[in-house]
Design goal:
The chain is 16% helix and 41% strand. The protein is an alpha+beta fold. Strands 3, 4, 5, 6, 7, 8 and 9 form a seven-stranded mixed beta sheet that branches. A two-stranded antiparallel sheet has the order 1-2. The chain is globular, with a radius of gyration of 16 Å.
Length: 145
Amino acid sequence: MSKILHCPECQTAIKEYRNPLPAVDIIIKVDNSLVLIERKNKPFGWALPGGFVDYGEPLEAAARREAMEEVGMELSHLKQFRAYSDPQRDPRQHTISVVFSAKGIGQPRAGDDAGKARLFKLDDLPAPLCFDHAEIINDYFSSFD
């Protein structure tokens, strides 16, 4: 769904889409554990915290906002890790995700579209993981080998 808006500077007609691209996902580490959320909306399962980038919002700001909204955590040492752009990565057609890593401050608590938020050891991750998050987690932690 889209609606027609006008550029505030030049008044050219522009479309505003319901779901902006890209999205962000955040690998949040607390000590030797990883923060994951159990989604309360489709697709169900466990996932990295994250979500849409609002129009005009810097990616880093979106990652910080999503971490606060979904797991109630502030972030330190926020770094961009990688972008994922497989058109099949998300059944809702969120085809691009910019992935960040960070240290989480505090303990996770579920909010927004997170039904649960928990810390998991890397050798004891839940299943199923949504989207391409198993691949993302594997890529991230294997990048230290």
